[in-house]
Specification:
heterodimer; A: alpha/beta; Rossmann fold; 7-stranded mixed beta sheet; 32% helix; B: mainly alpha; Arc Repressor Mutant, subunit A; 3-stranded antiparallel beta sheet; 4 helices; 3 strands
């Protein structure tokens, strides 16, 4: 029996944005500050058989869990934005492939005290061709760097936006997302022009 | 490796990891369907069907899913709401779909990024927050 679900043709569109960056760069903070729902966490389970290196550290352990942060922003009734904080540890890289699948783009949060920690994220998105912006999370008493200096230090491709932000601040975090979506739109228009 | 593995600090196994359980017990050890079958942001919804084919045995978790997705909901929110791992939810959703009890709406394909009008709507919506 099939239901008479009258709204069957009006399923919302859900877009994915990834929040990446090194450990402690503010990923969880950013997801929570901009999400309209209490930041939810869900778990992905690793099995030892598939990833023997991950669990070799603990003898006899065959599964462990990794927590993913996610948040949601309702743009309209039919358009939702989902934010996923990527797992920070290197051993969970394989999860990024799934998270990146179909993602609109990514925010790479950078901490200027540990700038090198965002290199792996940048490499990853560059290789996959996922559009990303770099958001420098300005911690208090941080030495301020200009976006240009950060862009040079990270050797970013021309056009990749670098913005300063405060991941704790909802407006600031929202502006980073706007920057990303506008960048994705610019890329798409440029791509359409080439064809 | 430290002498006492139980007390050794692991950056990936701390108190936040919660109780150590066997999440796939509820799926009888099944780990299929594949990760691509139910995207994290795919919407699932109960079909409203109440008849279950003979031989199909539903567990409490199956019923919990049907209840939770009476209105369409994304896979990731479903997992979070029911406090089940994504992998487990996918297996159970696979059962329910085979039984005709839920339907799924695919998210936009990866190779087809949303068009510029959708992106503009997103920017507009974000500015209005």
């Amino acid at each position: 029996m099939v239901s008479e679900r009258s709204d069957g043709s009006r399923v919302p569109v859900a877009l994915k944005i990834l929040i990446a960056g090194g450990f402690g760069a503010g990923k969880t903070t950013m997801v929570s500050s901009v999400s309209e729902i209490r930041p939810l966490q869900t778990e992905e389970v690793l099995s030892g058989g598939d990833h023997p290196d991950d669990t070799a550290l603990v003898e006899g352990k065959t599964t462990t869990t990794v927590t993913m942060d996610f948040g949601r922003i309702t743009i309209t009734e039919g358009l939702l934005l989902y934010l996923f904080g990527t797992p920070g540890q290197d051993r969970f890289w394989f999860l990024w492939d799934e998270l990146s699948q179909g993602a609109l783009g990514a925010v790479v949060l950078a901490d200027t005290r540990r700038l090198a920690e965002c290199f792996p994220s940048i490499d990853y998105f560059e290789q996959r061709g996922t559009p990303f912006v770099v958001a420098v999370n300005c911690f208090e008493r941080d030495p301020r760097f200009t976006p240009e200096a950060v862009s040079n230090a990270l050797d970013l491709d021309p056009g990749v936006p670098v913005v300063l932000c405060d991941a704790r601040d909802a407006t600031s975090a929202r502006n980073v997302l706007i920057e990303l979506v506008e960048y994705v739109a610019r890329r798409q228009l440029a791509g359409a022009g080439r064809r | 490796m430290p002498a006492d593995p139980l007390r050794a600090p692991h950056d990936w196994l701390d108190q936040d990891a919660g109780p150590v359980v066997r999440p796939y017990a509820v799926t009888q050890g099944r780990v299929a369907p594949s990760a691509t079958e139910f995207d994290l942001v795919a919407f699932v919804a109960a079909t409203g069907a109440t008849e279950v084919a003979p031989g199909v045995h539903l567990q409490p978790e199956h019923h919990a899913i049907i209840t939770a997705c009476w209105e369409s909901i994304t896979v990731v929110e479903l997992a979070s709401r029911l406090d089940l791992s994504i992998g487990v939810v996918r297996v159970l959703l696979g059962d329910l779909r085979s039984a005709g009890l839920i339907s799924m709406s695919e998210p936009p394909a990866a190779e087809q990024p949303p068009d510029v009008d959708v992106l503009k709507a997103v920017v507009h919506g974000l500015r209005a927050l």
